[in-house]
Write a structure and sequence with these properties.
Elements: H1 5-16, E1 25-28, H2 34-51, E2 54-60, H3 69-77, E3 84-90, E4 95-100, H4 111-114, H5 121-131, H6 144-147, H7 156-178, H8 190-222
Parallel strand pairs: 1-2, 2-3
Antiparallel strand pairs: 3-4
Helix pairs in contact: 2-7, 5-8
Length: 223
């Protein structure tokens, strides 16, 4: 049997990397922060104990040669027999994806929402107005909007850890809600509500400005 270069590299990584030992921060080539590791482990362990679902975070520096992120996830997730969800991030490839080893697991969380590049309904509406396209107004993204933000030198790792933990916690909390359990280590909605209020005000002003601009254009066209 012949293996592609990328698959061979993945197999070698799995064989010789001792850190891959059923942890919820399953692989970390990017952050290397004990506090980040501890928070992921606490939330992941509690989620597994209360729901039987393993939510594993994979932080890659770069995908193995010639492998897509989905190919990598499929090769990795094949080794798990228990219900498992992978949240995978590759820094150099600028890719994020979520893969479950059982199709039924997608019923417990909204993958499209978690991976949406738009964070709030207000932002989605403003973008739709600007583009005059209301066909897709999905929002609520908890990873990509944070990853897209600019970071000063020395703050990049903080951006990565913040965005990925935000997404990890979002998936965990959605699963817990679907299973009617409460996570003591959950991030909670208080902070997200405050951020949403600020965004509503901010994009509300933008929308108001757009309306005034359109009115002005229409007035000039009539005169």
């Amino acid at each position: 049997m012949k293996f592609s270069r990328g698959l061979r590299a993945l197999i070698l990584t799995l064989l010789f990397t001792t850190s891959l030992t059923a942890q919820y921060l399953y692989k970390d080539e990017v952050i290397f922060n004990p506090a980040f590791n501890e928070e992921v482990e606490k939330l992941g362990l509690e989620l597994y104990e209360k729901t039987g679902i393993s939510l594993r975070l994979v932080m890659l520096k770069e995908l193995p040669d010639q492998m897509s992120i989905v190919e990598y996830e499929k090769a990795l997730i094949a080794d798990f027999t228990q219900p498992t969800i992978l949240l995978t991030f590759s820094e150099m490839n600028s890719k994020v994806d979520i893969l479950a080893n059982q199709a039924s697991l997608y019923e417990y969380f909204n993958k499209k929402q978690v991976l949406s590049p738009i964070s709030s309904p207000v932002q989605a509406f403003v973008i739709a107005v600007l583009n005059m396209d209301f066909s897709d107004m999905s929002s609520g993204g908890t990873i990509l909007p944070l990853l897209a933000q600019k970071a000063k030198k020395g703050e990049v790792l903080g951006k990565y850890s913040g965005s990925m933990f935000n997404g990890y916690a979002d998936i965990a909390e959605q699963i817990a809600k679907s299973k009617n359990v409460v996570l003591q280590n959950a991030v909670g909605s208080a902070n997200q509500t405050s951020i949403l209020i600020i965004k509503v005000l901010f994009y509300g002003f933008i929308l108001y400005g757009i309306v005034l601009y359109i009115k002005r254009k229409l007035y000039k066209a009539r005169t």
